[in-house]
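Notes from the 1:1 (GR / supervisor)

We went over the backlog. Supervisor wanted to see one worked example end to end before approving the batch request, so GR pasted a single chain during the call. The sequence is below; no edits were made to it. Supervisor asked that the structure be written out right there so they could see what the output format looks like.
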Amino acid sequence: MNILLGLTPTKLVAPNGIPPIVLKECAPELTPVLCKLFNYSYKLWIFPSNSKIARVQPVPEKGKKTLPSNYRPIGLLSVISKIMEKAINIELMEYLEHSGIRSSLAPRTPRQASIIWLASSAICSLLASFLSNRSLQVVVDGVSSNSLVINAGVPQGSILATIVFLLHINDLAPIPVRQIRNERGRNVDNINMELATILEWGSNNLVDFNANKTQACFFSGKADLTVPNISLSGVTIPLKTSIPMLACQLLMIYKAQIRPVLEYCSDIHGAATKHTLKLLDSVQKRVIRLVGDASRTNSLTSLEHRIKSNIPRTETMRETLIVDTASTSTTTYAPTNPPDLNHLDRERSLRLRNDFFSVEVCPNRALDATLLLKMAPRLCSVTWHAQSVEEGMPAVRLAGQLREQGHEVLLHLAGRNLNEGQVVEILDEVKRLGVRNLLVLQGDPSHFLEKDDAKCDFPYASHLVKFIQEKYGHYFVIGVAGYPEKQPKSENQEEDYNYLEMKVSCGADFIITQACYTLERLTTFVKRCRSKGIHVPITPGIFIISSFKTLKAMSKFCGISIPQDIFDIVERNKDNEETVREYGIHVATQLAKDILSNRELFEGFHVFTLNNFELLAAVLRRLGLYAVEIERSLFIEENSEKEWRTLYQRYHAYVLEAELI
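Structure output shown during the call:
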């Protein structure tokens, strides 16, 4: 099931015609069926023949489009085939790690003995079946060619292909690295000898090397690049000054290997002399020239090279780190082991600043708890992607952990796939953990209700809100979702307002909206709600753009309308991830400023982060909300005369009546 749930819905449809989103959405129903099918295949050690068909689509590369050699074939395989391959790959990798073939940290099993043991096992029959009798069809503009049988190599786009190929070339002798000064000719002779050894190995193991695609690069501080010829299969390899590397960019190497060293303890470099700092600056300048493709005669102040390399000067890096260190050094954080949270006055303790913001946290993604604690959001909302009690427990546990760390927690709860007993089981555990805020979601439009939904206990969010109110009284503070734009399943937006009014009348205490990118649309939504008699607090949602792919996915699956100017800018820079992230931070910052300047309409803003807290931290810095000093302790002594309330609890009807009296 984990493999099915991990599928990317936007992948292209494979030869069997089943889109990945169908397999992902139907994972609970399909898991037993696929398990039975795969186990039967493992028992017979036969890979299904209909999973060996590949669909090839030619993609043009550089050069004339009339030449077939300038096209790169992209193979598409069946999604079910890839699911089966992934299951096999997990078991195979575990075996290889344990036997010492792949990992140097594994038990020291002799490599030759391991390969012999593997060769005698039945898995080789399955791998042989996987590689044999494969075929492909070329598809252009929806027209398919005749099938062509593949009698060599591994299938493109396959999950198992990589590990099978690596096992095949595992006995290729390693090439020794030689560094001999002033013996350029001798080095080239040694390289030619090693290339001859590789060709001999390839001949013995049925592996051909393409000399026309082989390249050589000469590294030297001198301008003279005169060296003897390097040849492969009688073809002279052209000597180049630079070579583009697939999936490996110099900028990535710099950020992973060089920049951390330059930034380490750089906040104390301010006392060093300029002569000493010059040693570090020279390293940065060399990187800028290398990544920015600038020669020694080019000035580093050139904007063209600066933009191309996207690398700041060392003095800029030092200044940024010094400011960050200074701003965070005065911050008081919540204690690691807080006291009993029943003694927490949430309404008072959470008003650490006048500007309210909350953060969405995903339980199925990596979480930077330290950075989250630094940002000190007024609320941490934990998302719910579960279809059962068991799948929902990680979200419940995360909510409890965040509360132990001193955060006020808002737990999402989707009721369409839960019955009354399951909801009670979940909420009893939530109550035991002391979490009192809920965001009830899913199942609003009645005319889109499916047959199975009609039988469930909570087809609408309003039903679940009403059930929680009747079962637990006013213990839980309940929020619901609002849509500044038309909900994807609704016929019109007026219908959305009617459903929202129904949810509030059933007991909802506040509203968090879907992500929106224009203040005008948010303002219209709030004013329309007020005219409908909806007077609970409304917090607008903001999604920080991190990539073009993510933006398209949010637009497609969440029904978010992206302003054309924003979409065009992101699409135009989609290959420059840093530029897109910077623009996303700018858009979110400007929208947050507009929201905070309209206090009469909005309580604050809620950020959908996908656990990418670094983007949110950048927005908060620009808003002046990051690392705000907490003037008093987060925890206070209990006062028997004070009634304890959560952040939104003051909006309960009985609380308002008491205050009026």
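Supervisor's comment: The first helix runs from residue 2 to 5.
Batch request approved.
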